[in-house]
């Protein structure tokens, strides 16, 4: 995603930002509302209010760079944060200050976005909006308070870099939550193409997509839509999600491994295990089940839910789901089926003796009770208090394959009017999907609530021809990208700015 600048609202050259040419919101013409600059006093004040006396500072370094990865007999040249996917685990406690030095060893601009964190706007990692891109050979230090516990992740907000190995997990521990489980397994799902003869940029070009940003002033090209994967697209349908994706991937991964050479997750029989599931894929939702077990869903997108027991669950791109399970004695397949596509990812759960499952194993749980995180209920402690919205924005999700172009309210990001908000308001977003494809819609910097006691989330699946309404408290001033977490949809236009006015 390289949103760059919305044509009329975010114009280069903010005054008073020495050394940061090209950043931030400045009204471009008389009819344009004035917007809160990511470096504004309001942003600093909000960050200061999050600071806690005596909070620790957690430090990390990320070096995005060209790497060669062994996915388990499949060797690929790609870009990553480490010699493995996912990148380094970053772990801190709620209230801590996180300080991450990014050293860009890529031959391209990059950025790091902290997905799901209600952080200070100038650290949100969106080039052209909240910061300048980190150029090849350049550095940037991210520093912000982590207000809420939960399972989060980080990735670039530059082009389709997310579809490489540029992702990692960020866990914010709740000091009061310790000891509720005996083991923790972090399970990262991904769809993989890079280094198999195509790069993600090749995939984007083959789809016929043009970036929704303004790359050197090139105009949009509305022609040349060319499906990839031959007849594959017709068959990519899911009864649960409708159209199940645009890209046919050669591999699906759990923790960077293909099913032929899976990771093994170990525990002792009858231990209580917390699984933190993160979908870091670019175009694939996964249906997840653990053979021989039912799963108790405890959190989604970092926030607790009323525990819900299920056989399987669907995790959209950008969503996280935490589940607990008391493991039986033996060897069990943890399977993540590419929903509506052909293929799956696998990890092996081992608590005792037994033969490992085959790469094609298909546990019966996958076809029993299956839930989307939308159906969960917020835990009482995180329910958003009832309040009438001060304003309601409608987001009509449009677009399609021919030409390959995805829109919100009929416009691609570069041409879109921002969704305005003011600090202190209750803002309602009504997302209306008029397409044949599902869209995991993500709002930066906020955790919205689904209606009528639904879960708190930052990424929610909107299925074809359905709508989802969410409410949020506008308590984090700045400029916040709101977009589909299908990276190819976001990059070709399905993104808009939730823009605070002073
Ligand atoms: Cu993980 Cu703008 O997103
Ligand atoms: Cu989408």
Describe this structure in words.
The model is unreliable at 1-28 and 212-232 (pLDDT under 50). The chain has 4 helices and 34 strands. It has 502 residues and is mainly beta.
Could you outline the blueprint of secondary structure elements for this entry?
Layout: H1 41-50, E1 57-62, E2 65-70, E3 75-80, E4 90-93, E5 97-103, E6 113-115, E7 139-145, E8 150-155, E9 168-173, E10 183-192, H2 200-207, H3 232-235, E11 237-238, E12 242-243, E13 251-254, E14 264-266, E15 272-279, E16 286-290, E17 295-300, E18 303-310, E19 312-315, E20 320-326, E21 331-338, E22 344-350, E23 370-372, E24 391-400, E25 405-408, E26 419-422, E27 426-433, E28 439-443, E29 448-450, E30 456-457, E31 459-462, E32 467-473, E33 479-484, H4 487-491, E34 495-501
Parallel strand pairs: 1-5, 4-9, 10-15, 14-22, 19-23, 24-27, 26-34
Antiparallel strand pairs: 2-3, 5-7, 6-8, 8-9, 10-13, 11-12, 15-20, 16-19, 16-21, 17-18, 17-20, 21-22, 24-25, 27-32, 28-31, 28-33, 29-30, 29-32, 33-34
The chain binds CU-O-CU linkage (C2O) and copper (II) ion (CU).
CU-O-CU linkage binds next to β6 and β33.
Notable features of this structure?
6-stranded mixed sheet; disordered N terminus; 502 residues; 4 helices; binds CU-O-CU linkage; globular
Please provide a brief summary of the model:
By secondary structure, the protein is mainly β.
């Amino acid at each position: 995603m390289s949103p760059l600048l919305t044509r009329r609202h975010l114009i280069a050259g903010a005054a008073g930002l020495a050394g940061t040419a090209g950043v931030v919101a400045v009204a471009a013409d008389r009819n344009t509302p004035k917007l809160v600059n990511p470096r504004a006093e309001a942003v600093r004040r909000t960050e200061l209010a999050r600071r806690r006396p005596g909070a620790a500072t957690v430090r990390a370094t990320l070096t995005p760079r060209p790497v060669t990865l062994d996915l388990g007999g499949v060797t690929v040249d790609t870009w990553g944060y480490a010699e493995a996917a996912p990148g380094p685990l970053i772990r801190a406690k709620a209230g801590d200050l996180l300080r991450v030095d990014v050293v860009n060893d890529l031959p391209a601009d990059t950025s790091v976005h902290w997905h799901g964190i209600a952080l200070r706007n100038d650290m949100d990692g969106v080039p052209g909006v909240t910061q300048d891109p980190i150029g090849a050979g350049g550095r940037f230090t991210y520093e912000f308070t982590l207000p809420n516990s939960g399972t989060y992740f980080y990735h670039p907000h530059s082009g389709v870099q997310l579809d490489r190995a540029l992702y990692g997990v960020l866990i914010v521990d709740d000091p009061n939550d310790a000891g509720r489980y005996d083991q923790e397994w972090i399970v990262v799902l991904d769809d993989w193409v890079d280094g198999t003869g195509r790069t993600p940029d090749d995939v984007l070009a083959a789809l016929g997509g043009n970036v929704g940003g303004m790359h050197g002033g090139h105009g949009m090209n509305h022609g040349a839509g060319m499906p990839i994967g031959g007849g594959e697209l017709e068959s990519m349908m899911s009864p649960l999600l409708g159209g199940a994706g645009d890209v046919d991937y050669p591999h699906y991964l759990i923790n960077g491994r293909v099913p032929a050479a899976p990771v093994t997750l170990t525990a002792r029989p009858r231990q209580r295990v917390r699984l933190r599931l993160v979908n870091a894929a670019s175009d694939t939702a996964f249906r997840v089940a653990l053979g021989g077990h039912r799963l108790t869903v405890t959190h989604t997108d970092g926030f607790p839910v009323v525990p819900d027991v299920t056989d399987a669950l669907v995790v959209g791109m950008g969503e996280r789901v935490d589940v607990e399970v008391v493991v039986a004695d033996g060897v069990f397949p943890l399977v993540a089926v590419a929903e509506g596509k052909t293929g799956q990812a696998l990890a092996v759960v081992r608590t005792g003796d037994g033969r490992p499952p085959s790469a094609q194993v298909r546990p019966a749980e996958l076809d029993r009770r299956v839930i989307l995180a939308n159906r969960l209920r917020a835990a009482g402690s995180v329910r958003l208090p009832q309040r009438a919205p001060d304003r309601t924005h409608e987001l009509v999700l449009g677009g399609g394959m021919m030409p390959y172009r995805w829109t919100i309210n009929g416009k691609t990001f570069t041409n879109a009017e921002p969704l305005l908000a003011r600090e202190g308001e209750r803002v309602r977003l009504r997302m209306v999907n008029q397409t044949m494809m599902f869209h995991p819609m993500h709002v930066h910097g906020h955790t919205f609530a689904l209606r009528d006691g639904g879960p708190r989330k930052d990424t929610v699946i909107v299925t074809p021809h359905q709508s989802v309404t969410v409410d949020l408290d506008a308590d984090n001033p700045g400029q916040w990208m709101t977009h589909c977490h299908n990276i190819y949809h976001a990059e070709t236009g399905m993104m808009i700015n939730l823009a605070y006015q002073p």
